[in-house]
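Reviewers of the previous submission asked for a worked example of the structure-prediction workflow described in the proposal, so we include one complete record here. The input consisted solely of the amino acid sequence. No template or homolog information was supplied to the procedure at any stage.
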Amino acid sequence: MTAAKSKYIPQEPDRLDELVDGDIVGESDPPIKKGRTGSRAAVVQALYESDSSGHPAASAIKRLAIEREITDDDIDFAIRLARVCEDQRTELDSRIAKIASQYPSEQMPLVERNVLRVAMAELAMVDAAPQNVVVNEAVELARLFGSDTSPKFINGVLGALLA
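From that input alone, the workflow returned the following structure tokens.
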């Protein structure tokens, strides 16, 4: 008879840990698209990796771009977006904290925080997609990488930001 091991999980598990660690994603997980959607996904993963390990996000993006065959234009967009996120991290986190005041950003799961950073940073860029596209992409990234409650949370925070 074997004893079941229990693991303490302080937050809902998310799927991004599997992707950052390089494990193969199961067939039931949606594929990561190419184009700007793939660029945004790479930025979320790179920022997650940067938060978790201290690696620069740009090097993670370059590695992910090779793995996913992302075009040069989309790599450029991803690197610019990641730099805005890294350079304005304090300001972005402050804005997140004001909007989601019941959920301090330092206690927020890394996936949600980075999806919000990416969306908010893109909204401030000159060549940003329309607001509704940025919000929809953020919700899809939350669905792809986050927990079951992530899409609703991301939609609510971004909806409050744009109201």
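The two ends are 57 Å apart (CA to CA). We consider this example representative of the routine output the project will generate in years two and three.
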